[in-house]
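Hi W., the zinc ion complex you wanted:
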Amino acid sequence: MDIRGFPTSLPEFQRVFPDDAACARYLESIRWPNGFTCQKCGVAGEPYRFATRSSVVLRCRICKANTSLTAGTVMQSSHTPLSTWFWGAYLMTTQVPGQSAVQFQRQLALSRYETAFQILHKLRAGMVRPERDAIGGEHPVEVDECLIGGETRGEGRGTHHKSIVVGAVEVRSRADDGKKHARRVYAGRLRLRVVPDRSADALTGFVKDNVAIGATVRTDGWTGYPELHANGYHHDALTLGGDPDKAEAHLPMIHLVFSNLKTWIKGTHHSRIEHKHLQAYLNEYVFRFNRRFYPMTAFHSVLGIAAHSVPPTYAQLYSGEWTHAA
Ligand SMILES: [Zn+2]
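Structure:
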């Protein structure tokens, strides 16, 4: 475990969420941090609890109205046990390379591939929420493009050509904490977009949609980004374009992101991502990347419990006792 208050290993996760009952208690504490309140009559008080085939139901003792514990979450109406969902969300948000449906099925010991595929699909839906806040601000941003995918296996099928992806990543400096770090800077937030071409419209448009006005934007040349300065950015362009070594020194962070992204696509997905699905995969990658320091937030987001989420305290999480204030 770590100071972020979330399990950092599978054995730890199993200790915190050993069975479906523990997961149900957790969901209840997240949804009603001060104890159950009936949605219908508004009366607070201990409900009756009983399990149905697809959920745990809380029944008001006063008006007898039922409330499903998983209503409004990705687990709603699912016959898959809560513990499987929790495991799935944990794997999805913490395992660095992400999961293919086949790996997922194996790890969760699911008998049917379709179940694994559906769980994965629903958890992914919690990752594609557009991120509207602009990155940059007080941090410089590296912007570059790369080519993804693409062994052409014969013309006519049209799905194996390379796609152009443009990315922007914040370069943050470590606070001087007196400790020795391998690097003085680290990657902050990331944005990735599939673009149709390298035109100024596509590339500058991406920057305008994702980077805060006034930020310093580093690129490897003026081509494609001629209007950044006019749009209120400090454009730090490498004017000696074409020299790979110089580009590497100028844009180390976004090049590292692209390299890891390509490894992920090649390794986990065997480069078999169709162009039309690529943006969804990029969104998943960005989601995990941007929350790598906040695993609990990511876990809540994919399960769909972030909306009414009051994170448990560290002590609550590890005691497994999500008891309510009386
Ligand atoms: Zn009631």
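The radius of gyration is 23 Å.

W.
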